Amino acid sequence: xxxxxxxxxxxxxxxxxxxxxxxxxxxxxxxxxxxxxxxxxxxxxxxxxxxxxxxxxxxxxxxxxxxxxxxxxxxxxxxxxxxxxxxxxxxxxxxxxxxxxxxxxxxxxxxxxxxxxxxxxxxxxxxxxxxxxxxxxxxxxxxxxxxxxxxxxxxxxxxxxxxxxxxxxxxxxxxxxxxxxxxxxxxxxxxxxxxxxxxxxxxxxxxxxxxxxxxxxxxxxxxxxxxxxxxxxxxxxxxxxxxxxxxxxxxxxxxxxxxxxxxxxxxxxxxxxxxxxxxxxxxxxxxxx
Length: 289
Known about the structure:
By secondary structure, the protein is mainly beta. It has helices at 11-35, 45-49, 78-83, 90-93; strands at residues 113-123, 132-134, 137-146, 152-161, 164-167, 173-175, 178-187, 195-211, 217-234, 239-250, 259-272.
């Protein structure tokens, strides 16, 4: 309560000021009381000054694993769940991590689409162990992809080779055909940096020609699951280079064993998708990287 009585103030005026202060205090008390639960008068002076009184009844989780439990699962995004396994995403990690030099005045997502070609040696596995063999050859192909996040992309690949196929004890040799077509997810753990290591894994089909034991040509189509590692180098805003090692895993079927055909490939990548020049009058020559 504030006393507004001053020296020389008439008694009647002083009484009116004191009544007004009392009414304000009563109104404030009623306002505070309305916000408290019924029967709760609020903390007294001792409780108000006690440092231990500012304690929460709720126990907060001691680690982040409990954040991915069943309770509140509807509020968890798919990439939040992937963080539990160590994967990154721009919504939680930003554009890049401090592992390499970030792209200055540019970004991989400024040109998120790419088409490229690749070539490298194919280390072949034997289609039928101990009977049908396949030689090593040169493996090449084309690829198209889309980086939909600083840490994630998706690619389609088509590759082929022409290894020699032969059967033990059969003089005929077939210049076989080896084709793969698949779609893979690509993960860039460093994000939007000038040098980008990556992991990839996907699903597709593998088709190969081979010789049967009677010397007749035979075709086999297998379910494929490629996976591997690589690295990308940005040369300029539209050109990048990449090196990779991929296991073209093909699951056995049609009388063919499970195959692990390794490819050591180098490729040239053309980046696409940049927005056109800006034609605003004050910067007519501005180019979007």
